Amino acid sequence: xxxxxxxxxxxxxxxxxxxxxxxxxxxxxxxxxxxxxxxxxxxxxxxxxxxxxxxxxxxxxxxxxxxxxxxxxxxxxxxxxxxxxxxxxxxxxxxxxxxxxxxxxxxxxxxxxxxxxxxxxxxxxxxxxxxxxxxxxxxxxxxxxxxxxxxxxxxxxxxxxxxxxxxxxxxxxxxxxxxxxxxxxxxxxxxxxxxxxxxxxxxxxxxxxxxxxxxxxxxxxxxxxxxxxxxxxxxxxxxxxxxxxxxxxxxxxxxxxxxxxxxxxxxxxxxxxxxxxxxxxxxxxxxxxxxxxxxxxxxxxxxxxxx
Length: 307
What we know:
- 78% of the residues lie in helices and 0% in strands.
- The chain is mainly alpha-helical.
- It has two domains: 2-43, no CATH class; 129-306, no CATH class.
- The N and C termini lie far apart (125 Å).
């Protein structure tokens, strides 16, 4: 009967024909409304709609821009760190001395190298050296062997100081000055022996300083009394040391707190203070660098008095 109503030559009543048409139109609408009411959890998220632009999808240019911004952050921080030095040099060169900056191209290229090197160095410290030092300190404390911890502290201080570029430079310069002052023979072998002896003496001093500093952290001794006593020893030894070794001894205490030694030494102290119960990293974690700069003065003056 219903199929006959779609035939235009049939005798189907008009009301029945219209009822079938409206049923065909309204039934899909009613089905969609009912499905929507009982299927709230199946609503499509705008991000899943292919007809709408997805704001969360990272476009290639957006990814590249994020990488560049992350890479430029250390460079910007290093630039702000170097800015006061550049301003001071430019002020005295251009305003006080009233002289043009010589070799401007070479100066700019060198400044760019310094900026890049400093940024990479700081990033490397944060990514590798600081976590490594803290992790090794934690592992040694967890192992519970005091002697291995002290051996590691000595080896760390000795190894990093021997490899310190500033110490290598100052030891070679000290050997040349000693040869010009006829304190040693002006030969390659004598210069090399003097420089190596000075480096090994300073490295030995830093190793002993780290052993003393680690033992202080373990015992909880106040750092100020040890530092004050150490400087009293420096003052007393200054009266007995040869005059030509005193300046070198004082400078040796400064070159040990440079690029290679400081990060690992600081990470060791902070890692120990964080790991040991009852120690405050702010109070007990710092101070190893002070020992590392104090003991070389004592050891180098003793080296000058003995040799």
